[in-house]
Design brief:
CATH architecture of the largest domain: 3-Layer(aba) Sandwich
Bound molecules: (2S)-amino(hydroxy)ethanoic acid, manganese (II) ion
Low-confidence stretches: none
Largest sheet: 9 strands, mixed
CATH topology of the largest domain: Aminopeptidase
Distance between the termini: 32 Å
Strand content: 15-25%
Radius of gyration: 22 Å
Shape: elongated
Number of domains: 2
Mean pLDDT: 97
Oligomer: single chain
CATH class of the largest domain: Alpha Beta
Helix content: 25-40%
CATH superfamily of the largest domain: Zn peptidases
Structural class: alpha+beta
Number of helices: 12
Length: about 400
């Protein structure tokens, strides 16, 4: 059944088949970057891209590109896509809606025999989530020159395996140079991963920009000792300092103003035993805001809090900023193209900025960029129960089809 510009049934069947790859009992997916499930998902996608008569290329970072020629071979392509790696036990929609939605746009153009003026290039970026290998948006970050290839290949997971080794092992270390092409513009369809569209009762979000964010790695080093006989005034407890810094993150965001958010998401305690005073704790801090100054101030403040907590407890400490992305607005013309596409499709929409990071953050540094959001039920994401109503996925893909078609025609 075709609604608007795309074939909802075909798209749904493909989405369900893809969701079965690395599916979890609770209805999510476990397809972290370069894992066995991610490899199977990649293989499936490459097969589907080829069936859609796309010319498939894989670059040095394992980014997967599918190209459809236009009538003007010299014209810069319209690029659109997202990512297919997931959180550990994450949601089925995060990233995948943007990649399979892009493929559905290609299939629908094929159905109609439409030849666009400009070439089209759809893409699945590697390592967007940044949970197994930090930082996130690594594939698009190398493509846009934010990171160099060697840095990316050396990223290690918690077992000490490197990104480069894993990319080689799964056969996705391609030979297409991972560097920016002349791209006419970039669109990304994505689930909102927040509550605003659902609260507003709208299917479409026209995204005007993405929060800036900072990721910090903190390490406290104290002294393991017996939890029983060691008097409290003789302790150097790495976890107590961690708890104090975590409270400080919360108080900084409470007073940091505006949309500042802060999270301590990953904590490794050693030796992590019930009757041993924690000797070492390594943990992460994630600050975000659409105001770059607010993120800078939060990072400066937490550096002080880390030092004070270490002093109070008599600990060694290290703090390293492992990633910093600036917030910056998307391209006005691309934003208006998405808004007009939503109007032409008959969807009400609102304009908003994204609290989640996306590959579009980096594409925005090399090509005019904007995004299309569709609602997340209960604002849930990065969780197996992540869910978006299918008609909203279709609506977003409809808008993507129109926005891409608009930009792919040369007047
Ligand atoms: O962290 C993020 O916002 C994205 O999911 N990588
Ligand atoms: Mn995502
Ligand atoms: Mn995500």
């Amino acid at each position: 059944m075709s609604t608007g510009s795309i074939d909802s049934r075909r798209f749904r069947e493909r989405f369900d088949e893809f969701s079965a790859i690395g599916a979890t009992e609770a209805g999510g997916v476990d397809r972290p970057s370069l894992s066995e499930a991610n490899e199977r998902a990649r293989d499936t996608l490459v097969e589907w891209f080829r069936e859609a008569e796309l010319t498939v290329t894989i670059d040095e970072m394992g980014n997967i590109f599918g190209r459809r020629e236009g009538s003007d071979p010299d014209a810069d392509p319209v690029m659109f896509g997202s990512h297919i790696d997931s959180q550990y036990n994450g949601g089925r929609y995060d990233g995948v809606v943007g990649v399979l939605g892009a493929l559905e746009v290609i299939e629908s153009l094929n159905d109609r025999g439409v030849v666009t003026d400009r070439p089209l290039e759809i893409v699945a970026w590697s390592n967007e989530e940044g949970v197994r290998f930090q930082p996130d948006m690594l594939g698009s970050g190398v493509y846009t020159g934010v990171f160099d290839l060697e840095y990316a290949y050396e990223r290690e997971d918690k077992d000490g395996t490197t990104f480069g080794e894993e990319l080689e092992r799964i056969g996705y270390k391609g030979d297409r140079p991972c560097e920016p092409d002349d791209v006419h513009c970039y669109f990304e369809l994505h689930v909102e991963q927040g509550p605003f569209l659902e609260q507003a009762g709208l299917s479409i979000g026209v995204v005007e920009g993405v929060f800036g964010f900072s990721w910090l790695d903190v390490r406290f080093e104290g002294q393991a000792n017996h939890a029983g006989p060691t008097p409290m005034d003789m302790r150097h407890d790495a976890f107590v300092a961690t708890a104090e810094v975590t409270r400080a993150v919360r108080s900084i965001t409470a007073t940091g103003g505006g949309d500042l958010v802060g999270t301590v998401g990953s904590v490794d305690v050693w030796p992590n035993a019930i009757n041993v005073i924690p000797e070492r704790v390594e943990f992460t801090i994630d600050f975000r805001s659409y105001d770059n100054g607010a993120v800078d101030a939060a990072v400066d403040r937490i550096r002080e809090e880390v030092e004070w907590a270490a002093d109070r407890e008599g600990l060694e400490y290290e703090i390293e900023e492992i990633m910093r992305v600036d917030a910056d607005p998307f391209d006005d013309d691309c934003i208006e193209t998405v808004a007009s596409a939503a109007e032409a499709s008959g969807y009400e929409y609102t304009r908003l900025v994204s609290g989640a990071g996306h590959d579009a953050n980096y594409l925005n540094t090399v090509a005019p960029t904007s995004m299309i959001f569709v609602p997340s039920v209960d604002g849930i994401s990065h969780r197996e129960s992540e869910y978006t109503e299918w008609e909203d996925v279709v609506a977003g893909t409809d808008v993507l089809y129109r926005a891409v078609s608009e930009k792919a025609s040369i007047r």
